Amino acid sequence: MRRSIGFSVGAGVLGFVVLGVFALPAGAAESDITFSKIVFNGGKPIVVGTTNYVDVSLTFTVKSSVAIKEDSLQVFAYRGTDGVDYGEIGGLWEQESECKKSTSGGVTTRTCERIISVDPRGIQGSLRNLVNSDAKAWKTYGKARTTAGGSDTDKNSATVSLKRHAKLTVDATPEPVVAGKTVTVTGKITRANWSKHRYDGYARSSVKLQFKAAGASSYRTVKTVTSSSTGALKATATASVDGSWRWSYWGNSTTGSQTSAGDYVDVR
User: Fold this and answer.
1) How far apart are CA 170 and CA 233, in angstroms?
2) In contact, 234 and 247? CB cutoff 8 Å
3) What digits encode the pLDDT tens for the residues 39-50?
């Protein structure tokens, strides 16, 4: 499977594309060309920070009873209303070498896969940056051109979730601690602010304080706390045995889940 990155619409868009006003390409779903099984990122949310590209898998199936230009297959995720604040993720001109093709009963089935790169900065040409309102479920569609000169656009029921990346820090004190005394665990939760290209404190977020005793295989939740207006976290617990403390955030519809590293405390 070949990996490519590009930014110009109509010439192989493989990055993240958000356009100010753009209409869904003309054409309607027809029985002679259909797109199905469109899956971005293996069905998991796409979680994006403020700077780095995020590589994302894209798979889809196309069935056709007419001849298609093999370099014309496009699949996009889009959000917004046609012609009003419209944007796209991951358009591509698919190459035949990246699709498995079979024909039966006059119908050709192509099973295709690609890796695209999502760019939060939109740094090329007229493309704009991601903004915070882009964190939502995006719809999908496919488009193909026929060798006869026509085209077909097929809106799909599948969706893909785009989320803002979160970060968590942790600090457990004192180290070491006397058995039966109090351990204070602090930290901070921040998340990507796409609109301003930075990470800001995530206020009023429910975050779990978790503990794993030395020799144990998993963490258990001790309590749940709500972050402050700046994203600060603080909780106390009674020290009983050696082990590691961490914070864990389960995510929501706009923000990806995140878990901090563990901070080991020796109990004496």
Assistant:
1) 9
2) no
3) 999 999 999 999
DSSP state of 256: -
How do strand 99-104 and strand 107-118 relate by DSSP bridges? Answer: antiparallel
Distance CA 233, CA 172 (A): 11
pLDDT tens digits along 65-105: 999 988 888 888 888 765 445 566 654 433 334 789 999 99
Cα–Cα nearest to 28, from 187, 142, 105: 142
**Which whole number is the average pLDDT over 171-192?**
97
The candidate with the shortest Cα–Cα distance to 35, out of 1, 87, 77, is 77
Task: Supply the mean pLDDT for the chain.
Answer: 83
CA distance 88 to 9: 10
* Rg from Cα positions in the chain: 24
Q: Which two tokens stand for residue 125?
A: 């040409």
pTM for the complete prediction? 0.84
Q: Is 92 exposed, middle or buried (0-12, 13-18, 19+ CB in 10 A)?
A: buried
